Amino acid sequence: MAPIPNISTVKVGHIDDVQELRRSKPTIIPERFVRDMTERPSTLATAIPSSSDIPTIDFSKLSNGNIDELRTEISQLATACKDWGFFQVTNHGIDLSLLESIEKAANDFFMLPLAEKQKYPMIPGTVQGYGQAFVLSEDQKLDWCNMFALGVEPKFIRNPTLWPTNPEKFSETVEVYSKEVRKLCQNLLKYIAMTLGLKGDIFEKMFGEAVQAIRMNYYPACSRPDLVLGLSPHSDGSALTVLQQGKDNSVGLQILKDDRWVPVQPIPNALVINIGDTIEVLTNGIYKSVEHRAVIHKVKDRLSIVTFYAPSYEVELGPVQELVDEDTPCMYRRYNHGEYSKHYVTNKLQGKKTLEFAKIQSKKSNQEGPM
């Protein structure tokens, strides 16, 4: 989730840098990284990897297609949002050289000496800088992952001391990349609104000055990938999340679909989009955020670059009025998005638990979304 300009002091204990662990003690897995039996990657059955499982949306048919192509792609987008909450976008309009540049910038940063990376520390209880986010206690299990996260927009959420000068042109590349991803998010939200029969600009008007953050994740290989997780199961608090997976990397992203963890096989040059908690609330549960996690490979490292796009912190949110009626009663209360963001980043990643913040509790049913 996008960072908020608030710092709290929490005790997190010693956190090993997983790249350093891999380098100096390749067969050692510290106890804080070893998952309980019920959390280990093999606990839930995993489907056979297939890129054809996850819906694919051709963005060029939405933006430049003829009427028939637009209608067909809008229909496919609706199905992707309703049945999966995840989809891959091809022909998204972002120059492929820019995708290569941001991947190189991220990889170059993670390859810096540890002392250099630690000049940009993620203070416990916050989500900007280098380290591990969402660690809130000394006994919490840790993810097998190094993160580097930055608030991008609006400018006031930035912490200038965390924007590195090394690697060269890192910050400049993040700026250019983020502007392009922002345009993509704005356009996707317009088409998502259309799938619901809403005006295309409804979300843009509602969001105000949208909040945007970028997080780079580095998942070193692990000698016992069956014991660890790269990223704990969670849904995103954002409206939309855009994931760029490293070229020729191992398959690491998995989504929970019908109680099975389904691996997301990257399509070359495509971006993976997922629906966040905010869209679930705004659509009154018609489109739901989806739990996902990252698993680790025994031999290959993995890199991912994630953008979170969300409403302004000042905005009051709740289900869109047009999507509430007698048959689909209001399932979520109205709330301030800044308060939800604070709630999200001050809780550990734990499935979709943080969304309880917004749900209207029903005595008759604990089900999510309309009946």
TrEMBL record:
Database matches in PROSITE patterns: FE2OG_OXY (PS51471)
Keyword Ribosomal protein tagged: no
Residue intervals of the Fe2OG dioxygenase domain = 209-311
Where does the secretion signal sit in this chain? none
GO MF annotations for this entry? L-ascorbic acid binding; metal ion binding; oxidoreductase activity
Q: Does Metal-binding show up as a keyword for this record?
A: yes
A Pfam family matched by this chain, by name?
DIOX_N
Q: Which UniProt keywords apply?
A: Iron, Metal-binding, Oxidoreductase, Vitamin C
Task: Give the family from UniProt.
Answer: Belongs to the iron/ascorbate-dependent oxidoreductase family.
Protein name according to UniProt? Fe2OG dioxygenase domain-containing protein
Q: Which species is the source of this protein? A: Rubus argutus (Southern blackberry)
